[in-house]
Amino acid sequence: MATQHSRSAARLMMAPAVVLLLGWMLIPLTMTLYFSFRNYFPLRPDRDPSWAGFDNYARFVTSSAFWPSVQTTLVIVGGVLLITVALGILLSMLLDQPMWGQGIVRILVIAPFFVMPTVSALVWKNMFMDPVNGLFAHLWRLFGAEPVVWLSDAPVASIILIVSWQWLPFATLILLTAIQSLDSEQLEAAEMDGAPPLSRFAHIILPHLSRAITIVILIQTIFLLSIFAEVFVTTGGAFGTRTLTYLIYQRVLESQNVGLGSAGGVYAIILANIVAIFLMRIVGKNLDA
Amino acid sequence: MARTVTTRRKSINTALAWAIGLLIFFPILWTILTSFKTEAQAIADPPIFLGFNWTLENYAVVQERSDYMRFLWNSVIIAGGSTVLGVIIAVPAAWSMAFVPSRRTKDILLWMLSTKMLPAVGVLYPIYLMFIQLGLLDSRAGLVIVLMLINLPIIVWMLYTYFREIPGEILEAARMDGATLKEEILYILTPMAVPGIASTLLLNFILAWNEAFWTLNLTAVNAAPLTAFIASYSSPEGLFFAKLSAASTMAIAPILILGWFSQKQLVRGLTFGAVK
Fold it and tell me: Which residues in A lie closer than 8 A to residue B276 (C-beta atoms)?
């Protein structure tokens, strides 16, 4: 039984974390909203930050860079999700099988997740995708093919490859955890009843994994919508790899058009919140259980 | 009834899993190997796998030219500081939510989670501006604060899920025996909570170490951690593969080793307890 005394003590203990996060959320958010309604160019102090109404919002979506950046963002997020979830399911099912050295294989598979984004971007860009000395170029020449200039000929696909490599371990690990909680007797019973492997997969394994898959998709989407270092290091937003996040970054810090960038920021926040609502619903349900 | 697995099937599983595992790990392995080659061997065609003259020269050059130790130290301070500070702030909050839950506990937890989903780029300029005004730009203190705040929701959640597994009856029994709040925390809760706190520290240290949006945008020279150190190796220096590899290996080695200890916590921490 919680007493009145322990309740007020609890409130007091929660206060620092709540106050800090409230400040962290409200202060910058208010500022972003404020800037988004102004013509604000910090590098030109002669121009007063005048009221702009919804001009920035309108200009951000009508600029020629906007729709391509939305498309790039969707292609990258969608591509990475497809690859990591599909391969993650296959890989987690394989890792769940009996084998020798399972622990070591698990470590090998998980390792990319711990590589910092700037390192993986730079290693892939130079040591693998460099058109002269990269390993892919060596491999292509070995088969008598002309090496591909990856980051200018297939830039979006290259970034999808790099990011998928980073996130496959996450998907695999979560799906493996979920698969291990599957009751193996159910599978055995189905096997004895003569259910072929494919229908065992479709009717037992996949339904069991559906919640974990949803969680993987939602969490990855939130992180993938804001990938930055992978673009920053590889192409700097050139060759059609400018994501929404990168476009806003360029508006704000590179061209110092803070009003326009802030309007973009508000769009990004709205987009992330749409995804977040779904994730929170699942997590919230789990809290009640 | 245990399923009998034939040796043949187990062999096939093993071969397939090892092949895929090595393929996924290969970029890391290749980076580590290349860091011990000379620049000429690093770009040799056909590539040399093991038959080269192992040398430590690249490591010496990288340290000398870019002062690796300073970046390493910045990473340790920023990742370590933000994690420890976050845990200090989160432990009381998670404790009270786990043991003195109220009607609003769930809402508060979900609200905290929602702050984690705020896209960083949406608040980039306000933070940038505040950093300039407060003189925090390119300072370790500033990054400790920001990384603490972005990881605080995860820290609270992880601790909460661990604390919730501690049976409440033990605390009640202690209270019956007349334990004060302080004694309760010090002698009963702390020993039971240590593994959970350790896991939380570990995972959040890794997340902070690898954070590459704020660390790239809010540092220049003085406070730049390893993420920025590596980014400075983009062309033309990146074309010196052996040195790039040595720098990369030094940046990821500490966290690869820590990461291997944190596999289980990773799932719990990053799914907010939704997958265990």
Answer: 177
